[in-house]
Structures are given as structure tokens and as C-alpha cells.
Design goal:
Radius of gyration: 25 Å
Structural class: alpha/beta
Oligomer: single chain
Strand order of the largest sheet: 7-5-6-4-1-2-3-8
Distance between the termini: 15 Å
Number of helices: 10
Bound molecules: uridine-5'-diphosphate, magnesium ion
Order of helices and strands: EHEHEHEHEHEHHEHHHE
Largest sheet: 8 strands, mixed
Strand content: 15-25%
Shape: elongated
Length: 314
Amino acid sequence: MPETLLSVVAPAYNEIEVLPHFIEKTAGVLEKAGMNYELILVDDGSTDGTDKTIKRASEKNPKIKGVVFSRNFGQLAAIYCGFSKAKGDAVVVMDCDLQDDPEIIPSLVAKWQEGFDVVNAVRSARKGETAFKKGSSDLFTKVARKVTGLPVKNNSGEFKLYSAKVVKALLAMPERNKYLRTQIPWLGFKEADVYFERGAREAGTTKYNLKKLFALAEKAILPNTHLPLKIGWIIALLTGFCSIAAFITFIILSISGVGLPVSSWLFPTIGLSLSVLLLNNAARDKYVSYIYDEIKDRPMFVVKEEFGEKDSDG
Ligand code: UDP
Ligand code: MG
């Protein structure tokens, strides 16, 4: 398909051990399939010389573009940078540690050519993932689906093909707190699945620890639901009813001569009301901090250097 251009975007953070093989393998697959492509590698503030590997690769192969961030801004920022640079009719996003198999790119493209705007690379097997990681990711999907009401996909990460239409729509979503796994179902484009066996990392180590994963889960879920604020309301109402019931009981008992000390009703009522107020405040503060992030309107990433830009226009 020489008339169409495919952009492949891969974020890289301290991936010097695996990046050369990723580039060779991915470019090999694309060349073999006779595709007109550009490979956009985004260095997310690496400190191990990943940028030099990208620079050398772009000097050797004019289809390779490189963007280097001034510091680590996160995988999603790197993906969005790739989207903003991509000139393709379709964009494939994939990790560069070879867990996402470049061999399935032609199948993703084939589905796109059938008319699907989003083609998910779905993991039929997840080798090299601990039981904890699998379990927590399944739980995350379940909670995210329930709480946000969006059909969040299981066993599928960012490894997908996105048509130019979808990329344009994603770039037009102005919020700072972005998360592709909830944004894609929200957009509602026609999706298809292609299955693949996700292997273990070829080299290097994961860049995600538990703290980073929790932060990601929170960012994925909270901006997509008002449930924590509603829970505050529901509990506040329940506490209100309980307090009124307690008050009435207290009056009845007093009238019928069973004198109870005031403190026996006062403490639980005040305690419960206070904790509800504090919880509701905490939920509101969380959303205020998200609003603060939005109004600051800072860029998602800062670019330090770019390679191969001029050569890849054709
Ligand atoms: N990555 C990134 N910035 C980060 C963390 C990760 O660009 O702050 C890249 C990383 O180089 C890899 C992809 O995102 O290409 C997925 O990261 P990783 O393999 O560590 O995640 P895992 O597969 O363990 O969930
Ligand atoms: Mg990985």
C-alpha cells in the first residue's frame, strides 16, 4: 500500500539495552510488508544514552524520527508527542521493549483497511507478568468499567492502531489528565481486535512501580466519574436520617421516663457526621486539584531535541 503512510510511535525511557533490536525488528517487518512508514521514537528523558541510539538510527534510516524530552514526562506524554508529530493515515503505538510484537503490525493494518478506526492488539497470553500484575490489571479494568460506565477493554493496553481520524479527535480533547484506555471508548469509534501473545521484556526492567501504577489508576478513573462526590452525598443523607432517628428516640425515651445521658447520643451522631464531612471534603479536594491542573494548562511535555524531521516528509 504505497499510497498510504503508516506512523509507528514508540515511547522509550532508559531502553538502551533493547532499543537497537526493536528498531531493527520493527523496520524489518514494515519493509518486508512493503509499507510506506515513519518510525517515531520518543525519548522520555532517558539518562542512559537512549537519545544517542535514536540519533544514530535516524541518521542511518531517513524513515526514523526522534524526539527527545527535556526530562521524564511519562509514557502517555510521549505517546501524545508521537501523535502530534505523526503524519500517517494511521498510527500504531507500541512499547519498545518488544513485549508488543512488531510482527502483528500488518494484521492491525489489514483490519484498519477493512474500515475499523481503532484496532486493539489484545493479549491472548501475558508471559513474563507476575500473578499480582495480571490480577491488579484485571481488577482495575473491572473497577474502571463499573465506575466510569465506559466499556474499558481488558487485556489491551496502548498497543493499538489508531486511524488519523481518531488521532485528530484525541488531540482535540483538551483535558490535561488524559488516559487512552478511557478516552478511546468515550470517543466511540468502530473497534476491532487482533490477538497476540505478549511475551516478556526482551531486556531491561519495567519502568512502573506500585506507586506509579496506583497514580495511573487514580488518573484513569477519577476524572471519568463523579461517584466519590455522590458517595459523600449518599452517606451525608444516611447520617442525617440516623441522627433524626436518634433524636426522636431520645425524645421518646425521655418522655417515657427512661432518661439517657445526652452524651450517649451526641458523640456517635457528631462523630459520624464529622467523618462524612471530612470524607466529602477530601473527595472535593481531589477534584479541585484536578481542576487546578487543568487551569494551569501547562504543556504535557517539553522537547529538547529532534532528529530526522526534515528527511521524513516524503
Ligand atoms: N515508558 C516511558 N516513560 C515512562 C515509563 C515507561 O516512555 O515514564 C515507556 C517504556 O520505555 C516502554 C513503555 O513505556 O517502551 C512501557 O513501559 P514498561 O515496559 O516499563 O511497562 P510494562 O510493560 O512493564 O507495563
Ligand atoms: Mg513492558
